[in-house]
Design brief:
two-stranded antiparallel ribbon, 153 residues
């Protein structure tokens, strides 16, 4: 539960923690990394469509080997993300992040722990450039959430 009283530490919401646990358990169902990669790709294929006119320099994430675009909006107290990539695996990776962050408050996103990805073994099975992209995506999603802190609902 998020707490923001005097002297109390702000932590990620239970919804984020539950979604992360669900993703970790889903990965545990697969023994073979080929199946896990296919699951990631499927996540990307199920993502909401990303309009072509959103593929702008302002939405492009710098530093990724693949082209990655991230758009964030703020509505009803929550940050809503949409993303796309020219790489199926990269699109799937950012779709995993969207799965557990979409609709959360900026404060919950800023305190979310992305270390659960380590527990899935995903980073160690990625090429270094893809692992770097994973870090950049997490940083940019938090940055977009930071942009909305203090925004009126």
């Amino acid at each position: 539960m998020t707490s923001s009283g005097p002297g109390e530490e702000l932590t990620a919401s239970q919804e984020i923690l539950d979604a992360q646990k669900e993703l970790s358990e889903m990965f545990d169902l697969f023994d073979d990394w080929t199946d896990k990669y296919q699951c990631i790709i499927d996540f990307g294929r199920q993502a909401d469509p990303f309009p072509e006119d959103w593929k702008t320099e302002a939405n492009r994430l710098d530093g990724c080997q693949s082209q990655v675009w991230l758009e964030a909006s703020f509505e009803d107290g929550g940050v809503h993300y949409r993303a796309d990539s020219d790489s199926q695996i990269t699109k799937g990776m950012i779709a995993l992040f969207i799965h557990f962050l979409d609709g959360e408050s900026p404060e919950n996103i800023l305190t979310a722990d992305f270390a659960f990805i380590e527990k899935t073994g995903l980073k160690e099975h990625l090429a270094p450039t893809r692992a770097n992209a994973l870090n950049l995506m997490a940083i940019q999603m938090k940055q977009r959430a930071l942009d909305f802190t203090g925004a009126p609902d």
